[in-house]
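Researcher: Let's do a round of design. I'm pasting the structure tokens now; please hold your answer until I've finished.
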């Protein structure tokens, strides 16, 4: 499992190798929410729990209730699926949406959303998505773990917290095995899915992210990230 900082370094070196079609990712933005619409905190808590599964459930729920985070979050629709909008997940400058105001959900203060996509013909796909929150990784992990069943919780690994899973090409679509290879590139023919909590470069901020990396096939990508437009599901 490579950390988010490892991925950023890789992305800068490999930017010219990306195979995705250029597009404006936020073109399918949902209708504008009424001004000052408050978040639905019960629905937002359910959405945060769904997000921590690192599968399609978060995007499905947001598609059903695109205004659950309130008017401070712009949402992009893709059919019946939705995600917080970013300008371009392939560009470092276009991968982040800062919320108009923080959202306090289940002990986490959400301040931004990130969506990052890159691909290399040799090393495979790298997808990262999730929230920037205020506070430390330890406090964020404690709050998130309170929403999760014991088997789903992140565990501390040095300064980070993670829940890593792997699968191989040919495994049944929803088969995942616990464990990963920390600090290393995912082996060819293998996919890693990670729920990762790590410090941001900005003081007092933490990233709460899902990652999907390695030999990601189009059917698996569509299964895990159905919010992505067809041009990014390649």
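Researcher: That's everything. Go ahead.
Model: Designed sequence:
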């Amino acid at each position: 499992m490579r950390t988010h900082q490892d991925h950023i370094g890789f992305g800068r070196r490999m930017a010219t190798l990306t195979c995705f079609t250029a597009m404006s990712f936020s073109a399918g933005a949902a209708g504008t929410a009424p001004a000052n619409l408050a978040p639905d905190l019960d629905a937002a808590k359910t959405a945060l729990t769904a997000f921590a599964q690192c599968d399609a459930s978060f995007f499905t729920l947001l598609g059903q209730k695109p205004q659950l985070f309130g008017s401070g979050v712009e949402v992009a629709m893709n059919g019946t699926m939705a995600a917080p909008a970013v300008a371009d997940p392939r560009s470092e400058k276009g991968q982040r949406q800062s919320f108009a105001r923080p959202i306090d959900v289940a002990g986490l203060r959400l301040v931004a959303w990130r969506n990052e996509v890159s691909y290399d013909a040799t090393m495979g796909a790298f997808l990262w998505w999730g929230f920037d929150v205020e506070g430390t990784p330890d406090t964020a992990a404690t709050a998130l773990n309170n929403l999760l069943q014991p088997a789903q919780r992140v565990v501390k690994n040095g300064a980070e917290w993670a829940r890593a899973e792997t699968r191989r090409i040919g495994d049944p679509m929803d088969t995942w095995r616990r464990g990963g290879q920390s600090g290393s590139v995912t082996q060819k023919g293998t996919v890693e899915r990670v729920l990762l909590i790590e410090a941001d470069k900005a003081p007092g901020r933490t990233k709460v992210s899902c990652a999907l990396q390695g030999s990601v096939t189009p059917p698996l990508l569509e299964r895990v990230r159905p919010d992505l437009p067809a041009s990014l599901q390649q």
